[in-house]
Amino acid sequence: MHCQEIMKRDARAIADVDDAFSAARKMHEFDVGFLPVCDASGRVVGVVTDRDLAIRVCAEDAPAKSTAVRDVMTVGAISCRPTHSVAHAEHQMRSHHLTRVVIVDEDGRLLGVLSLSDVAQYVRPSRVGRTVRTVAERKYAPERP
């Protein structure tokens, strides 16, 4: 199965020059916690999450309407091509502890988003379980007794 078969094609994105307030409003409007960030040419240059906004805007008491998304986004998005296998996307999720990857064309322009919940609908439960466990692991988890 390929990413293009199960990805969400109507992914919402935001421009890197937009402000953090606009990002939060867009997340609220579309009930999402993740937005790919695109530059002026439409290439994905990063992602901004609700967590990014909480930590880098709210917790810093930064003015949301005058803080550019490019200043609070996570630079560089983990991506796949539409023709990559879903197994490849799962590998990316496991390797980077992510629940979403952006799907881009050969020029790095946004085509869609593939989330772990999309994968869970189409892949064997045992395989999804392995991906969920790996994504959920903390990088610096304390040793278990």
Question: What's the SSE blueprint?
Answer:
Layout: H1 3-6, E1 14-15, H2 20-30, E2 34-38, E3 44-49, H3 50-58, E4 74-75, E5 79-80, H4 86-96, E6 100-104, E7 110-115, H5 116-122, H6 125-136
Parallel strand pairs: 1-2, 5-6
Antiparallel strand pairs: 2-3, 3-4, 6-7
Question: What do you see in this structure?
Answer:
The chain is α/β, with parallel strands linked by helices. It is built from 6 helices and 7 strands, in the order αβαββαββαββαα. It has one domain: CBS-domain, CATH 3.10.580. Strand 6 (100-104) and strand 7 form a beta hairpin. The longest helix has 12 residues, at 125-136. 28% of the residues are buried. Mean pLDDT is 88; it is low at 140-145.
Features:
4-stranded mixed beta sheet; 6 helices; CBS-domain; 145 residues; disordered C terminus; 3-stranded mixed beta sheet
In brief:
37% of the residues lie in helices and 19% in strands.
Shape descriptor = globular
Give the low-confidence spans.
Answer: 140-145
Instruction: Write the CATH fold name.
Output: CBS-domain
Mean pLDDT score: 88
The strand count comes to: 7
Strand order of the largest sheet: 1-2-3-4
CATH level-1 class: Alpha Beta
Rg from alpha-carbon coordinates: 16 Å
Question: Termini, distance in Å?
Answer: 40 Å
Structural class: alpha/beta
Quaternary organization: single chain
Tally the helices: what do you get?
6
Q: Can you identify the CATH superfamily?
A: CBS-domain
